[in-house]
Structures are given as C-alpha cells and as structure tokens.
Amino acid sequence: MIEVARYLSVNRIAYFSMEVGIRQEMHTYSGGLGLLAGDAARSAADLDLPMVFVTLASREGSIKQQIDADGNQIDGPDPWNPEEWATPVGAMVAVQIEGRQVWIRPWLYELKSARGPQVPVLLLDTNVPENDPRDRIITNRLYFGDQKDRIKQEVVLGVGGVRVLRALGFTIDTYHLNEGHAAFLSLALLDHHRLNRIPGIPEPFDYDVHAVREKCVFTTHTPVEAGHDRFSYDDVRAIVGDLIELDQLKLLAGPDHLNMTQLALNLSRYANGVARRHAETAQKMFPAYPIRTVTNGAHVPTWMHPAIADLFKTLAPHWAYELEDLLKADQVPDEALWAAHQQAKRELVDLVRDTTGVAMDPDVPVIGFARRMTGYKRPDLLFHDIERLRAIAGRRPFQVVMAGKAHPRDFEGKAMIRSIHAHMRSIKDIPMAFLPNYSIAIAKRLVAGSDVWLNNPVPPLEASGTSGMKAAFNGVLNFSVLDGWWLEGWVEGVTGWSIGSDGSDPSPEAHAAAMYAKLESTVLPLYHEDRARWIWMMKQTIAKIGAVFNSARMMRRYATEAYLRA
Ligand SMILES: *Cc1c(COP(=O)(O)O)cnc(C)c1O
Questions:
Q1: Which pTM does this prediction carry?
Q2: pLDDT tens, 339-348?
Q3: Domain 2-194+207-297+554-563 class?
Q4: Which of 49, 170, 418, 547 could form a disulfide with 326 if both were Cys (CB 3.0 to 4.6 A apart)?
C-alpha cells in the first residue's frame, strides 16, 4: 500500500461520487454531476483539504456520441485506459453480488493543485481476472444497463468503497455522499455498527444508526423525481443478499421501494441542496429533514481561458487562489479584455469549422447552449418560432453553437437532438452548428468563446447548473430562465439577463416569447451598438460571479458547515 502511504497520516473526508470529471483523457464522467465532483476535488487540492475521492473506473466511459446524417444520436462506448493515467494499488477487497465474490481493485489518481498539494482519487475497478466475466463488466460503463446493473454499480461504489478505504488504512472522519447513488456506503457502515442488544428492551434497530449518521453528510442534486434512484427490494436482495435485515432496511429506505435518497437522508447528519431554490424545492419533497444550501461553484483556473487568466495575473499574481481578486476586473483595460475574448472566440470558430464545416464570423455574436439533451432543459426552445428567430437575425445577426448528449434511454432527449439538427439544416440564413460528443475540452472552448450563454430549463427543475458560471468567468453573459444558481447570480443588465421573471408562466410559449423579445430589444442591440457597455457587463460578470460562484467558496462552505462537526 506504498502508493497511498502519504495520505494516511491525517483523518480524511471521503467524497463518494459515481462520476468525477478529472480530465479530458479519463472518461470517468458523464455530465454536470461529474464535473462538479471534479471541481470539488480541484479546489480541495488547492485548499489542501484532507480529502479522498472515491469513484468508479468506468473503463468504457459513459457514451461516445456520434450524430448520423438524419440527426440521430449513435451512442457507443468511450474507452480509456487506466494504466496510462493511474497507478494500480496493491490491495483488493471483495463484495458479495448475486452470491458471488466480486473483487475490486482500486486505481490511484493523484490530483495535483498548481499550488502544490494533491488529493487522492480512488477509481474502483471490477475488471480483474479473478472475477466471473459477468462481474468484470460491472464498473465498465457509467450509468449503463438496467436497474440491476445500476444496483451492482452502486454496491461496488458504496460498499466496495468503504472496504477499500479500510483495507488501505484510511481513517475517515466524514463520508460525503454526492447524490443518492452513494447511499449503500451508509449500509456498509451500519453493518460495522451492529448493536449489542440488551434483552427485553425493544429498539427499532439492531444497529447503531446514530453512529452512522454522525459520519455521513449528503448532497442531493435533482428536483426531478426520476432522478432519484428507487430499487425493488427483490432486486436488491437478489443482488446483495442481506447486507442488513430487510425489515430494518425498510425502516430506513421506505416500505415499498428502496429509495436511495431516503436512505441517504436517514443516515446523514447533514443534507443540502445545490442552490437556494433547489434546497427549497427539496425541502418540500422531504419535509421531515432539514435541507441546507451550499450553492455550487466551478473551478475558475480550470474554466477561465488562459488569455483572460493572464490579464488577472498582471493585476494580482495569486488571483487563482485569492478569487476575491476577480473583483478587480474593473481595472482590466477594455481593449485587453476584448482582445482576449476574441482570441477565445476565434478558437471556438476554428473548432466549429474543423468539426462541422460551418463557417462563423468572429465579429458576429455567438449564442452558446451546451447541456444534457433532455426534456426539462428544453434544448429546442430557441426554435419555438422559426420565423420570429429569422426575423430577429435579419435585423441584427447572430450565430448559434450547441452541444450535449442524451442518455441512451432518454428517447425524448434523442428526439430533441434530431429536431435541432433538422432546424439547423433548414435555417440557411443563421450560421448554426452542433458540436458532437460534448466533453471537457469542448466545454472549455464553448464557455470561453461564446458571447451569450443561453439556458432555458423548466423551473424549478434545474437544481443549480454550473456551465453558466464557467461562461461568466470568461465574461460571457448569461441569458437564462430564473432557476438554479442564476437566481442568486443574476443582476439584470449587469451580470446578464433573465428570461421571464421569477414565478412567471413557465410554458414554452411564454418563455420563448420572453426570450425573443429580450434578444431583439436588449441583447443584440447592446452587442452591435454599444460595445463599451457590453465590455462593462463582461467585467461585471467576471467580478461578481467569479468571486462568488467558484468551487473554492463551495468547498470552504462544505468544510465549515457540513464536514466540521459542531
Ligand atoms: C459544466 C459541464 C456540464 C454541466 O452543465 P450544466 O450547466 O449543469 O448543464 C456538463 N458537461 C460538461 C462537459 C461540463 O463541462
């Protein structure tokens, strides 16, 4: 265990997440949840927080998206090779799955801050020769397969993760369950805390539930009902057997289904949502549990374009670790900021040309939209009224770049991708492109090279969203429905613009009308006719959003409000 020895001298917080977006070459992420975990790890390293991250190896990634001539998403595996990026750790642990012993080998990735400190990330892998072929594939594809496959993955993450940490000699002060996916870890801890029952005294539990609650904190990430894992007890028992007795499990995870969110809430001392509005929504869903708020943040040094970062380096050499320095954005000369932005924009224009053949003009505003292609995010809302859209572009031109993947079984999301492609083909007078296979690398180009970052989910379903923060770090102006983090970051006409008002009619008709009206009367005129004011807004958004919606602030809040015990 020589590989991890240097991490064993202090008690650590173990952050469990199905996905962690570590780097472009490691396909251990699918989307926002993974990038959030990655940014949490990057800031934990910057701040030298005593943490260890636990996730799956996902050797075949999540999905590799190709788009055929008809706009259909073709999804295939997206392999990467742990050998190239991580170190095998000389320890294996086993969990029981369907009565078989399934061995788990961890890989170690050491995530290093540019400032020096590093945090260990353990990638759990069942693809070892000791395992039955059925079990070697458990950790291959992120979120793949049916409910049973999902249970197996979550057992490897939760139960396997706890055992791996123990086997390696980690002392864990607090476990952070990043989403309900990780909730099996609390059962592994329960199993460890079996009570010596005092005969004759009735107790609901055979376990020291209190001791486990003291060790766990939980972050919920979605107000969408389908986003919460619910498993049938028959499936769970067929796969894990009696990790704890069924009657006891039902008391913790619900009478009819094993609800992973419920389990996590019952076995955590602290629970939070990822933006204020989301915490309010979650509080209504789970009235019996206090739900706090830690609004998400993104890692500024990762998402800010180097040309813009250089401007801050001149002003404040240590800005990347003293993000309050971003409040000095006012002192950046207009021409320098515009030149840096145009450099980022030319890189996006080049990427669009090289991947899609579409020619874009760096002097015409680019509207960027990139997120998971799924119903509530309404990626096709921009095309609600094509004639209106074309009329607006006829008066003041703009261009559109989109990207995003649909989950393999999200047929509505896939239909939206098809319809976006059909619109893009038929609208000849607005340059438009869809970049396939959205990834960290494409996100970096898009959030830096767009001018306007569009977001139009159905409120209150966007728990937080983070891509708008990444855009803001680059002076890209958010134009968004009031939901998630934007309710907190939005200052109208200063950091960006709203679509509709808080509580206004959320129908596609109403939101599309509000979007077209403001695009036409406010956003495009400002870009084309008042560049000085536009650049002033770019500085406002970098300063106000960068100094607050960063993952260093987020991790400091987790450290003082969730990890630190009163
Ligand atoms: C930031 C990011 C996301 C999350 O974007 P949302 O705004 O939360 O939808 C998803 N995928 C990638 C590659 C990202 O960088």
A1: 0.97
A2: 999 999 999 9
A3: alpha beta
A4: 547
